[in-house]
Amino acid sequence: MAFTFQINDDIKFTRNEVFLKKAEALKPTINTMRVTPISIIELTNDNGKLNGIGTRVVGEINDLNQIFLKRDDKVILDFGDHYVGRFSIKLSHHGSPQDAPLTLRVKYAEVAAELAQESSEYDGWLSKSWIQEEFYHYDELPAVLTKSRRYAFRYVELKVIDTSPKWSVSFSEPELEAQTSADFNEKVELPLGDQQLQSIFDVSVKTLRDCMQDVFEDGPKRDRRLWLGDLRLQALANYATFNNTELVKRCLYLFAAMTAEDGRIVANVFTSPQNIPDDTFLFDYSLFFISTLSDYLVNAEDEEVLGDLLPVAKVQMDIALKSVNELGKFSDQEDYPVFVDWSNDFNKETSGQAIMIYVLKQFIRLLEKSGENSENYQRILNKMLVYTKEKLFDQEQGFFVSGQDREINISSQVWPVLAGVLNVNENAKLMKKMVAELFPVRGIATPYMYHHIAEALFISGLRDEAVDFMKQYWGQMITLGADTYWEAFEPENVNYSPYGSPIVSSYCHAWGCTPAYLIKKYLL
């Protein structure tokens, strides 16, 4: 059963109740684990860490209840690793009777650099309501700060705004109820001879685990949503680690259940307090529903899912093909943009062309798997391949070009390799030339695009270059203090934040988790 609804004045959506019920039946159990801090720390200046902020141990956690705090005093607890969950702590009063309320500020931080920022000074374009900070008033002590809102953090700073001159407050029994839909007891181990690669793999697993909640979230700090581009990459990492195919299946049904009236799948959906689609549409994200479905069926024999979701996949492909002319040329549409990466400083038309080819190949395989005729799609694929090789590859320069100005950029080389436009030898030649002439990467800030660059190097047989590339990117995040991989990172500008401040940046982000997949697929 399906019905139409609106979430704003412009866009109507179709809601498929059958698919939503299937998604709801696949809702995972959220596992919890009790975690206590490992030490009391203070911030230090450390040029080797993010934003020049390091930490130093200044006390044992067992001595916490012996620290008495008054106005402007603070204490920072270190849980030793990144977690997602709810924090609680006991508060006690010392001295004369409590003649004024306690006002307390609690800050939660994924990285130490967040604690060095004041929320009152933040002036970025992203909502300041994402800042992980709470204020509490206690008229009577003792009391317990209870596990209320879920946060993503390693550090907790407790700052006393005020008591009164006559008494002080102490804290005891700090605790975090960590949560994930992955199994805390499941050890995802892959012994590697290279210690740096081992760390890169382990942090990748940790990132994925903390993003596995009710759905595959993009980031547990923010936006706490199911994004299709992130889902595709999370699913690949998941197959290489936890192999929770049911969670992938749930996410596929959620996207398929809430499509625009014209059939397009949205870029992301909300699942709390109710299932509802966002009103953002990205050309390649909608197409990647097909990729995610295809990858799922490679890892899980599931005729029911194929039967249910192939028609939805077909609508995405047919809509996308409206942007391809009779010659096999793709043209980017302003109202249905190709994402590829956050940066809009490079032309994305050739990337969109190659992504179409990449997904069209997967779609044809799905049609063949279901016994449906794929001849028309195969004909279009052949045209697109010919156009890409004959019109978009500049023989004289040895690179793919993009747009009217025939721009040469990294993405326009990477995506044709991923799409299999060239043969193995041609791929290797192109990637070697790219590394020699277009590296180091500049102006690309997301692990999302860095993943595709790394995989293109692996596919082309440039194993050593791919490993070095991973170490220079994901490895550098670890050197700077990452427990989980970040939403955005520029090696040429290590303190970069897309929002102008680390206080709202996400430091556990789904699209950074793919090294586990890359290592397991290409290095073992």
Describe the fold and architecture.
The chain has 524 residues and is an alpha+beta fold. It is built from 14 helices and 17 strands. The strands form four sheets. Strands 3, 4, 5, 6, 7, 8, 9, 10 and 11 form a nine-stranded antiparallel beta sheet that branches. It has a three-stranded antiparallel beta sheet with strand order 1-2-13. The chain has a three-stranded antiparallel beta sheet with strand order 12-14-15. β16 (393-394) and β17 (399-400) form a beta hairpin. α4 (228-239) runs parallel beside α6 and α8 (349-370) runs parallel beside α10 (411-418). The longest helix has 22 residues, at 349-370. The radius of gyration is 25 Å and the shape is globular. The two termini are 46 Å apart. The model has no long low-confidence stretch (mean pLDDT 96).
